[in-house]
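A brief tutorial aside. Many learners find it easier to grasp structure tokens once they have seen a single protein encoded end to end. The record that follows does exactly this for High-affinity branched-chain amino acid transport ATP-binding protein LivF. Read the sequence first, then the structure, and try to relate runs of similar tokens to stretches of the chain.
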Amino acid sequence: MNSTSPKAEHAMQMPNDLETPPMLGISGLNFYYGESHILRGIDMTVAPGKMVCLIGRNGVGKTTLLKNILGLLKPRTGTLTMDGNPMTRKTPDQRARMGVGYVPQGREIIPGLTVKENLILGLEARPNKRGKAKIPDLVFELFPVLNTMLERMGGDLSGGQQQQLAIARALVGEPRLLVLDEPTEGIQPSIILEIEAAVRQIIETTGISVLLVEQHLHFVRQADWYYAMQKGGIVASGPTDELSNEVIQEFLAV
């Protein structure tokens, strides 16, 4: 089978060390809205310390899949695991404490709180909340502009600064899997490059795994592996350095 063919009926999963369970494992996931079959037999893995990109045009089920991963929606059949531990029946807050961090599309920072207060909110997701938690220095190493704006209201930040704040807020919760939903949407090109570099640094310095939903080709190519969605199913996958022009046209062209 040619894994880069957008017409493929099946797609191979990301390679993973056989002795190490995937950070995120999805098997046979089916989800329905009423009787409408939205997600169709999704199989996907995100290996520890790797970045996986999920691509596909609008309306193919990407956001629905993320909501199933986060626990906001419940699949009819199938299983989800986190580092080998079952999480299909876990609530969203339990999944956050298992190590799932989320940066939603549109950022959704709280505009009426300061940058510092937004970051403090992220501490609630930490698995161990005993004692007084501190915003980690890594956040300001990755996004130094935030350290100069701690007392500014979140709503006063530019779109790019809000996106950096949203990623930083997820990071202070000490996730092991960071889920990013179209982080470059509405962001100017120079800030996109900064965010790309920060995400790669996060992976390289912390070992956090990343699941990215993205349409920006340059960012997609920063990932180690891609999965392409069409009509609620995974129809192509492979290493991003083998991403063909055919797949790009099929799943990323405007």
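Self-check: The domain at 24-249 is CATH 3.40.50.300 (Rossmann fold). If you spotted this yourself, you are ready for the next section.
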